[in-house]
């Protein structure tokens, strides 16, 4: 049975072109630097984001945590948004792996503004931790994007205080598509960046961490420390190359489908959402129906061939991707109308 899967854009299947590339990939031992396909992916990725070097890693969480480990020393404090993925969805790894503490900033739209960042930077006081890193996101976990002038403002503040900036760009190419710019236009305001190949880009595994050559050399050793040294990883890197060459160019379709889904969801009594906040491929909404148990929606849809996550903080999140068509969206809406009638 084929399921329509709206849980995330990590659920996509590799394309036929990816499968062929993986089957035919030339490989070697990547720990020795001998895998030509991994080397090609890393070179391509670094060029796309305008950095000197890049590193292929197993996941976005690994990429972010390597970024934190490589930039900081134990006892540092890092500045980031209170709802940032690094703070909320990475299992407390910053404390376990890097020994740093978090200084989270609250913002009504989850954007870190320059004034707030500057106010959170520690002074040179023997009693206070050193501010070792500023972590940004673009696109944000709430499905919106950060304007380039805001990122520039934060980067200017960081440079003034000689603090590096790391970007969790898990959906970097969605952000670039939404902003009408290139990935490099975004990453010019960062010292390092992590982006996923398996979120919306259909690669089965992997993320990229990019920065200076010195930074990546250090991160490569930290990757080994974490058990992340991969051997004949070119089979995976081959799919990543296709993801960057082809799949980044079709994300606008997912964004349009998300807007279409948002408009159709508003046809359902009790659905509350803000269409202006559908900026990438995510639709957040509330189901305000006292006569219906919202927690049962996921199981009822699953019975009809649709996979969703339950509500988090009162909000449902539907995510469009390469494997979800407009026809699928119509089926989802019609099914929800039937369930909620």
Automatic annotation (TrEMBL):
Transmembrane segments: none annotated. Keywords: Lyase, Pyridoxal phosphate. Residues 5-286 form the Aromatic amino acid beta-eliminating lyase/threonine aldolase domain. GO terms for molecular function: L-allo-threonine aldolase activity. InterPro entries: ArAA_b-elim_lyase/Thr_aldolase, Low_specificity_L-TA-like, PyrdxlP-dep_Trfase, PyrdxlP-dep_Trfase_major, PyrdxlP-dep_Trfase_small. It comes from the Bacteria. One of its GO terms (cellular component) is cytosol. The modification N6-(pyridoxal phosphate)lysine is found at residue 199. The keyword Cytoplasm does not apply. Its cofactor is pyridoxal 5'-phosphate. One of its GO terms (biological process) is L-threonine catabolic process. Belongs to the threonine aldolase family. NCBIfam families: GntG_guanitoxin, PRK10534.1. This is L-threonine aldolase.
């Amino acid at each position: 049975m084929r399921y329509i899967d709206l849980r995330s854009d990590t659920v996509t299947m590799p394309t036929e072109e990816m499968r062929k590339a993986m089957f035919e990939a030339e490989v070697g031992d990547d720990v020795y630097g001998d895998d030509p396909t991994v080397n090609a992916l890393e070179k391509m990725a670094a060029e796309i984001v305008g950095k000197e070097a890049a590193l292929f890693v197993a996941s976005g969480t690994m990429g972010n945590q390597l970024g934190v480990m490589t930039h900081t020393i134990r006892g540092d404090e890092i500045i980031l948004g209170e709802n940032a993925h690094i703070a909320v969805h990475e299992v407390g790894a910053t404390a376990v792996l890097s020994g740093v503490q978090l200084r989270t900033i609250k913002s009504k739209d989850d954007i870190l503004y320059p004034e707030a960042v500057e106010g959170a930077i520690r002074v040179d006081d023997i009693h206070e931790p050193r501010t070792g890193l500023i972590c940004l996101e673009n696109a944000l976990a709430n499905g919106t994007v950060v304007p380039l002038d805001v990122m520039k403002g934060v980067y200017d503040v960081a440079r003034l205080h000689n603090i590096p900036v790391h970007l969790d760009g898990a959906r970097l190419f969605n952000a670039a598509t939404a902003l009408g710019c290139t990935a490099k236009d975004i990453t010019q305001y960062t010292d390092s960046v992590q982006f996923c190949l398996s979120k919306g880009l259909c690669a089965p595994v992997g993320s990229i961490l990019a920065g200076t050559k010195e930074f990546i050399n250090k991160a490569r050793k930290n990757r080994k420390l974490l058990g992340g040294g991969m051997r004949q990883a070119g089979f995976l890197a081959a799919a990543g190359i296709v993801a960057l060459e082809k799949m980044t160019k079709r994300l606008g379709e997912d964004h349009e489908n998300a807007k279409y889904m948002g408009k159709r969801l508003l046809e359902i009594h009790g659905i509350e959402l803000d269409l202006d906040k559908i900026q990438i491929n995510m639709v957040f909404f509330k189901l305000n129906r006292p006569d219906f148990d919202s927690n049962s929606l996921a199981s009822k849809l699953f019975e009809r061939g649709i996979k969703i996550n339950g509500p988090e903080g009162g909000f449902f999140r539907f995510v469009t991707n390469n494997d979800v068509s407009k026809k699928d969206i119509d089926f989802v809406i019609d099914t929800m109308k039937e369930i909620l009638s």
